[in-house]
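Run log // design_07
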């Protein structure tokens, strides 16, 4: 943890043990048992600061004030959860986010809602570097919604994680009430209302696809176990790290306490890409494209559904009237968009992925517009499309805006779609066999379909 910022900068360089009481600027500073961040001076501070009665004393301070009407104020003693030592929940509080101020009742921002706690893995990576600032700005959860960020990194990205937290400090986001960092999922996921699982190992040179499934699968098995143990019982889990459908299944299977319906694999980027291509072809602005389903796996077997999609409320097939283009150009273009982007600038999509994560969250916390739907990789426990049960498969969903979703059950499926949907389903069933040892099943074997269908460069 870093407990050094603002007024506390004066003590930088000191090494404070836990349970020390420090008087500072007339306020009282009490410490908790957080681990200290190494300071530039080589010292470390083990203090969680409680500074009273200084609201408005320096510009921007009020922006970080916690208590308000939120019940998750860092001023309140933290209850132990899931065997996590008190003071370690959520990871280690960082810098200015360790400073909390007691506000007088009348000074609390009454319009703010209960703090939402968001755990983000791979927080020092490229996607998170875009996403975290969207979350903190209020763009995703709303301008009256304070948030706490619990950031999970890997051993290798420990320093980078602090760099990210420093940038969050310097951004002075009014709604950002806490930033906690750590490398232990059981600490970082504590009390999480949302878990955005982005961090994963990239595919190394010469690495077989099966090896990657196993390597990343172990990460998601551990993270599933940690979520099961310490996250909020209603935590919404969005898996981004590839292969995201199977990783989501692994996390779900390792979290029996949690509702399987709360696990999602991100296919919103694919949906957005498909909408963009249809808009381009039809010569319309892309917000006129609706009802876009991505069926199946987030791989090149995914099926962008032009049969049920609409432009200006009319069927795409009636507006574009070029079936050959829809089948032979549109479909592979969406399936391989990730690779095309990498060829252009040498790295995988990060900003547009972050946008699509924001979109995916907003789709679950906002009522879906009448007649429309969104795509998400969801648990196939009962569906009218004949998709195998017990996998994570992208399908059309609607939400009442409370974090839950319902399947759209009346899509038209023709032979063209059915054949391709089956291929993607077969791929997911094969991936599931490969990771049987990680989801409590026996007799696993890895016999993946011919060809490399994972998105190029994204693995
Ligand atoms: N589903 C999608 O639409 C989609 C789109 C783009 C990328 N992705 C995937 O998202 C993932 C992240 O992409 P990126 O560009 O941010 O990668 P990145 O390499 O920039 O960042 C990944 C970060 O995760 C960290 N990490 C690795 N293992 C970890 C672990 N066990 N716990 C916590 N952190 C860990 C790494 O140290 C790194 O900082 C990749 O798997 C990529 O394939 C998915």
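design_07 sequence
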């Amino acid at each position: 943890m870093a407990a050094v910022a603002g007024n506390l900068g004066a003590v930088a360089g000191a090494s404070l043990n836990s349970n020390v009481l420090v008087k500072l600027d007339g306020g009282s500073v009490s410490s908790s048992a957080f681990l200290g961040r190494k300071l530039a001076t080589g010292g470390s501070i083990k203090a969680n600061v409680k500074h009273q009665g200084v609201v408005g004393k320096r510009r921007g301070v009020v922006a970080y004030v916690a208590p308000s009407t939120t019940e998750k104020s860092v001023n309140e003693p933290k209850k132990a959860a899931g065997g996590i030592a008190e003071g370690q929940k959520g990871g280690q509080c960082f810098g200015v986010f360790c400073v909390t101020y007691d506000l007088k009742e009348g000074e609390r921002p009454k319009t703010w809602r209960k703090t939402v706690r968001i755990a983000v893995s791979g927080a020092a990576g490229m996607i998170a570097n875009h996403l975290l600032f969207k979350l903190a700005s209020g763009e995703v959860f709303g301008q009256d919604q304070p948030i706490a960020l619990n950031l999970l990194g890997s051993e290798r990205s420990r320093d980078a994680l602090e760099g990210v937290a420093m940038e969050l400090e310097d951004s002075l986001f009014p709604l950002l009430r806490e930033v906690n960092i750590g490398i232990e999922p059981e600490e970082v996921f504590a009390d999480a209302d949302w878990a955005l699982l982005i961090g994963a190992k990239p595919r190394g040179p010469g690495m077989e696809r099966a090896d990657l499934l196993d390597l990343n699968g172990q990460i998601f098995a551990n993270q599933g176990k940690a979520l099961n143990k310490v996250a909020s019982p209603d935590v919404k889990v969005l898996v981004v790290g590839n292969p995201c459908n199977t990783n989501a299944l692994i996390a779900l299977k390792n979290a029996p306490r949690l509702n399987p319906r709360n696990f999602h694999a991100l296919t919103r980027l694919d949906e957005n890409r498909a909408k963009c291509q249809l808009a381009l072809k039809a010569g319309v602005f892309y917000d006129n494209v609706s009802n876009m389903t991505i069926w199946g796996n987030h791989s090149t077997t995914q099926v962008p559904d032009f049969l049920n999609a609409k432009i200006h409320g009319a069927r795409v097939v009636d507006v574009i009237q070029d079936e050959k283009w829809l089948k032979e150009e549109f479909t592979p273009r969406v399936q391989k968009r990730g690779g095309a982007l990498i060829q252009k600038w040498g790295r995988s999509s990060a900003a547009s992925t972050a946008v699509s994560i924001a979109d995916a969250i907003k789709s679950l916390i906002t009522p879906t517009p009448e007649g429309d739907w969104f795509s998400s990789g969801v648990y196939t426990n009962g569906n009218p499309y004949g998709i195998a049960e017990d996998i994570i498969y992208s399908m059309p969903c609607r939400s009442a805006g409370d974090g839950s979703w319902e399947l759209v059950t009346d899509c038209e499926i023709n032979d063209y779609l059915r054949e391709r949907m089956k291929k993607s389903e077969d791929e997911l069933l094969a991936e599931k066999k490969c990771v049987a040892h990680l989801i409590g099943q026996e007799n696993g074997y890895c016999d993946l379909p011919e060809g490399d269908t994972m998105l190029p460069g994204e693995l």
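The two ends are 32 Å apart (CA to CA).
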